[in-house]
């Protein structure tokens, strides 16, 4: 009757866990399990982690993106004629294109903020805040009204960015060469300030006509011009070409301090950040370097907005309210009487947000383009390739100096030898004259010595004594 009762192995199979028993770490995994007729039920659902899945996909996408980026970068560099040398003509041209992209795209993207800022500067009581202003503009002028002035903004700041970044790189290198390596390091901040001021002076000449049209388009409700070309043609028809440049002096007053602060503070902040971060600049990835550029640019933009805001208010007021033929100083005095000192700071919070975002994005785009073209990012420590080149140049200069010194020494030795030979010839001729005098003992022989000194080529024969 033993077959009526279940055995021990059958009982274990019935009451065992359906998920199976996991072997312990200490247990021997190679040992085979005991054979049985009953199999444990397998797991229907494997372990799944959404976090790990997202991380894996992100790594895969980033690897694919970097591969595509490197391919495109290699194509761009080959199209430019191979790897571009730093501080060459092609390098400055590439920086010009990078500045065009950085400024043109970012300023156009923040046109809605700029529109509210300009209208609040012209009339501080027009809007209470940004969202209320956009709501009113949308109800009255539609979605197109929120982007009023995007055309002159894009063209003007594209031209300005191209000149500003291209000339900044050029003047920075030129002034550093003039100062010398020791003074360039010692007075680094002064070098950044002078290079950025020189670049902005030229860039504002390209920006001024478009800025005048933009301010008039944004200040008028509704806009008096259909577009950029329509605005330029109408202004020149009424006021001539001078009407487009009547805001040039206040534009210089706004943009030059702004750019000086933008470039000098950015370079300094980047250097400070890399000094406090572990490792060197070259140890970080391209994405990390552009992230540092964005953060440094945003902090620099806050300082820029505070420094240049009073002049920005004056530019908006002059372009909107200056009468035809009114002197610059008279117009400035009249506007200041109307708005007062507090009026110079109208719209500052909006401008801090706008300029901070703008400056951060500009530096990020510019440095990203520089990486794309195979250049190091702006600011921080100099790359090792540049240091090696500098050492090679110094060695070449030392070799040239040594060669020049050797040549000078050889020339001096040759001159000394020639002088010694001449002296020996003179001594031999004088000795010959004295010997003749001793033999003859006449007065005419003394005259012979005089003739030897004056005319050494011919020696007359002495007369016989009487």
Name the descriptors:
466 residues, mainly alpha, Mitochondrial carrier fold, 0% strand, flat
Description:
This protein is mainly alpha-helical and 466 residues long. Helix 6 packs antiparallel against helix 8, helix 8 packs across helix 10 and helix 11 crosses helix 12. The protein is built from 15 helices and no strands. Mean pLDDT is 79; it is low at 381-391 and 442-459. It is 74% helix and 0% strand. The protein is flat, with a radius of gyration of 42 Å. The protein folds into 2 domains: 87-381, Alpha/alpha barrel (Mitochondrial carrier fold), CATH 1.50.40; 424-466, no CATH class. It is found in: Mitochondrion inner membrane.
Structural class: mainly alpha
**Counting H and I runs of at least 4 residues, what is the number of helices?**
15
CATH superfamily of the largest domain: Mitochondrial carrier domain
What is the CATH class name of the largest domain?
Answer: Mainly Alpha
According to DSSP, the number of beta strands is 0
Give average pLDDT, whole number.
Answer: 79
Q: Per CATH, which architecture of the largest domain?
A: Alpha/alpha barrel
Rg, alpha carbons = 42 Å
**Count of discrete structural domains:** 2
What ranges have pLDDT less than 50 throughout 5 or more consecutive residues? 381-391, 442-459
Shape by Cα distribution: flat
In which range does the helix fraction lie? over 70%
**Major beta-sheet overview:** none
